[in-house]
Structures are given as structure tokens and as C-alpha cells.
DNA sequence: GCAGAAAGTTAGGACGTACTAACTTATTTC
DNA sequence: GAAATAAGTTAGTACGTCCTAACTTTCTGC
């Protein structure tokens, strides 16, 4: 028998390129780790033409990172999921580090992490995490995957879904738009704050809120991005 | 007159790709900022085929980063030099930061910085520098260019050139090979140490040295990479 | 000053990633 | 269930970076 000639591209150890890591992250985000992702949605998230996604997705499937059936969308394989989580961990540890160790505002960390995540070694990321005390969430409250690839997948309710009169602890702001983040910070709508829904206008009208003695109201679109963990109010009811 | 159609690619603001930054750094290193660099030497430093360098160098010349004459080598333009120094600053600040803020050993910083230098923003680099007290040199003693693009260009003498009996302060180790760096650290041959040449064997033989009460001897090749600032010895003579 | 060696270049091709235009498949609507 | 629409794909092309092979220019040593 002759020796294997073209070694299979499935060894799993070759470092992934930055675009590949971005595809995997996007697919992970769309399918929440396990679900399917549509070509168009991937294209939209990455700001690419759908045709480009078709091509790339096929290559990633050939490499064993995706399960792909033409016209049927795409799903991460186990190895693809692991790779996505590795990148996600890098991204979020870097965000946390920039915020805690280097004084970055929370609206600036995403952009910087978006580039560094592809360049930082695992060792660097681990040292960063250790230096700031092994954080469990990034500055927006998103959970940081562990080194061995597990994540807290708790699904929180958004402020848009909380009943009138109910209270919750803000756990996460699920968006990276700097302007939105600055606006929310101005309103004190940041992870860790206890918030109460005072009223909700119909037909997509504003939602009135209170945080401590601050009162404010925000639109429903914005509210969808604010995730809360319901807490019992004084009467013992839950949101 | 009609308006300019193909706007010149000389605007100077487009971010450079990682390979381009690497070429500029290599050319800077070879020509010490202003001198000419030969195709083969660039190729060797970047571990590329000379033919690849020929091609790339032409593109960089078209972009106004290099002055290039076929068969005659290459030289940085002012804008190329500025770009090279920007990258060099990033690289060295990152090295210093990894070492001082994250506990990296000096033999590990280069590799990590080699990737991060292409991903870190100027703001990140400036924050890193500020956090560790605006260092003037990296962990190997190499001077860090300032934000406005000036560098200390002092040329130091190497240990191989120091007279027998002369002393010097080690200012820099001009190599990035991790094994060499670990070896030198073992011998306490690191920036800041005062070192004296005890003897030098002829025909490329070993050089005997003392640092404090430590005695050691190293080969001449290694000695070339250790740069020193001569200091007057007890008799007032200089090396 | 010429032959051989060294240095450098061009030609032609590959790979990864993107694009637009044109086409095909799937889904929705009546 | 057929037509209209939405979603997805293929074909063909471009760009940046790299390669090898073959060629040309420059340098060196006699």
C-alpha cells in the first residue's frame, strides 16, 4: 500500500482564517449554537452578497465545519461549534479585558475585539481572563464560553416582554451598536440594574420604566435588546 | 477639464494589509530606516520566494510607499517610513505590555506581538503604553518609536566589538529567537546588566565575560546580538 | 572584458475570498 | 395547482498574495 497522498483536510488543528471564524460566529449566533442558519441571514450579518456565502459555506462543509444541503441552509457540526465557541470566548474575554484593564467604554470594546479575536493566542486570552479574575460575562452581559467549550445558554426575557408592574434585573444588552449603547448607558440601562416596567403604550408605543428613582421610557425595538432576569416584586408575583 | 477619474491610491489613509506592514517593517529593518534593501534580503527575512517580493515591491511602489528601480533594490519613501514606524511602535508597545502587564517571558512576546500588531488600533496601543508608564524600550531593549514617528537611532556597539578589559551596560539583545533569548536570560545577559569582557580567543573563539561575580563565555555570533553602551572602567578608559 | 555566479525579474498558475448577473429551487398567494 | 415572489445557487470575474520555472541583468574574478 502506498502512503496516503492528499492528507484529509479534516485534521482540525489548522488555524482558521479570520473570514472563516466570522462565518462560524455568525452561524452560531443565528442558530443559537445548534439551529440552522439561512444563507441570506448569514450574508446580512456579515454584510456580504448571498452568492459569496453560498461559495464559502460549501468550502466550510468540505472542511467538516458545517452540515450543508443545497437550498436548505446550514448547521454547525460539532467541530464547527467548538471553533465558534473558541472565537466567541476570545471575543468576549477581550471585551471584558479592554473594559476592566484598559479603561475602554462599553460601546467601544466590540469593534476592537472584532479584530483582536483573530490574532490573539489562546494563551493570551487565558492570561487576560486570569488577570481580571476569570469573568463570566462580557461588558454587555453576554456569557463567556469556558476553555472547554461550554456556555451558559440561559435564555432571558427581554424588557419588551415583561409584564406591566413587573421587575427584573438587567443581565444583558444584546446589541453592539455604539450609539445605542451610549444611549442606554445615559439612561443607566446597564447590566446589574434593577428595572421595573411602569406602563406600556399599545401599538408599539413607548414603555415606561423605572430604575431606582429614575423614570424613563423607551421604544419597543430598543426594549427587545435589553434582557432581564425576572425578580419577584413586593407582592411576590413574577414578571 | 473633467474631474479626476481614478483617484490616486496615495491618500495615505487606507489601512494597510498585514503582509504590506510586514514588508515595510522588513525593509525598514534592513535599511535602518533610510537605506536600500535588496530583494533577496527581504525575501529571506519574510521567508518568501524572491519572485514574490519582486511582485509585491512593485505594487508598494505604485502605492507610493517605496522607491523602486528594477534590479536596483528598494527604499522606503517618507510615507512608507511613517507606516513602518507605526507598525514598529505597535509591535514594541505590545511586547512591553505583554511583558509588564500580563507576565509574559521575554522569549514569548515577539511571536504574539507579530500577530497583534496588525490587529490593534492606535488607541489600544496608546492605552497599553499609558498603562505601563510610557515605556521607551521593549523587553529586548529596542527603542519604541513615538506616536509622531521619531525613534532613538543610537547605534550601539556589540559585545563582539568591545575591547578586552572594557565594560558596558547591556542595552539591547537584537534577536528574537526564543531559544537564544532563554539561553541569554539563563546567563543573566539581559538589558540593564553591566558586563565586562575578560578575554577573547582568536579565530572566532569564545569570549569570556563577567556580570557581577558571574563568569561565562559565549561564541562571537551570539555576542554580535548583544548590544552595549560602553562605560568607563576604573582607570577611566572606554571600551 | 568576458565567463560564470549571484541577484533579480517575468510568465503563468494557484488559492482564498469577494463581487455581479443570470439562473434555479422553494415558498406563498390566490 | 399555477403564477408571483423570495431564497439560494452557479458562472464568470477580480484582487491580493503566494508559488515555481525560465529568463535577464548585474556583479565578480580572473
Short description:
Two copies of one chain form a homodimer. By secondary structure, chain A is of the alpha+beta class.
Give an overview in words.
Two copies of one chain form a homodimer. Chain A has helices at residues 18-31, 39-46, 50-62, 78-102, 109-116, 122-131, 178-186, 220-224; strands at residues 66-68, 74-76, 157-158, 167-173, 194-200, 207-211, 214-218, 226-231. Chain A has 239 residues and is α+β, with helices and mostly antiparallel strands. In chain A, strands 3-8-4-5-6-7 form a six-stranded antiparallel β-sheet. In chain A, α4 packs across α6. Chain A is globular and about 55 Å long. The N and C termini of chain A lie far apart (68 Å). The interface between A and B is medium-sized, with 17 and 17 residues. The structure holds a DNA duplex (30 and 30 nucleotides).
Amino acid at each position: 500500500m502506498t502512503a496516503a497522498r492528499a492528507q484529509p483536510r479534516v485534521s482540525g488543528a489548522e488555524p482558521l482564517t479570520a473570514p472563516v471564524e466570522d462565518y462560524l460566529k455568525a452561524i452560531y449566533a443565528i442558530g443559537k449554537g445548534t439551529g440552522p442558519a439561512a444563507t441570506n441571514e448569514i450574508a446580512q450579518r456579515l454584510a456580504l452578497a448571498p452568492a459569496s456565502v453560498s461559495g464559502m459555506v460549501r468550502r466550510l462543509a468540505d472542511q467538516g465545519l458545517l452540515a450543508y444541503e443545497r437550498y436548505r441552509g446550514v448547521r454547525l457540526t460539532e467541530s464547527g461549534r467548538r471553533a465558534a465557541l473558541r472565537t466567541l470566548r476570545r471575543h468576549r474575554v477581550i471585551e471584558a479585558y479592554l473594559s476592566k484593564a484598559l479603561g475602554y467604554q462599553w460601546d467601544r470594546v466590540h469593534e476592537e475585539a472584532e479584530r483582536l479575536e483573530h490574532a490573539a493566542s489562546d494563551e493570551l486570552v487565558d492570561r487576560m481572563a486570569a488577570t481580571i479574575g476569570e469573568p463570566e460575562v462580557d461588558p454587555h452581559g453576554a456569557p463567556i464560553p469556558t476553555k472547554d467549550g461550554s456556555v451558559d445558554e440561559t435564555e432571558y426575557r427581554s424588557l419588551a416582554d415583561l409584564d406591566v408592574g413587573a421587575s427584573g434585573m438587567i443581565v444583558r444588552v444584546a446589541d453592539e451598536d455604539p450609539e445605542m449603547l451610549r444611549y442606554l448607558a445615559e439612561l443607566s440601562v446597564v447590566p446589574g440594574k434593577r428595572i421595573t416596567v411602569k406602563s406600556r403604550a399599545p401599538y408599539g408605543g413607548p414603555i415606561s420604566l423605572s430604575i431606582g428613582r429614575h423614570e424613563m421610557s423607551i421604544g419597543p425595538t430598543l426594549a427587545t435588546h435589553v434582557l432581564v432576569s425576572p425578580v419577584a416584586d413586593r407582592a411576590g408575583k413574577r414578571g
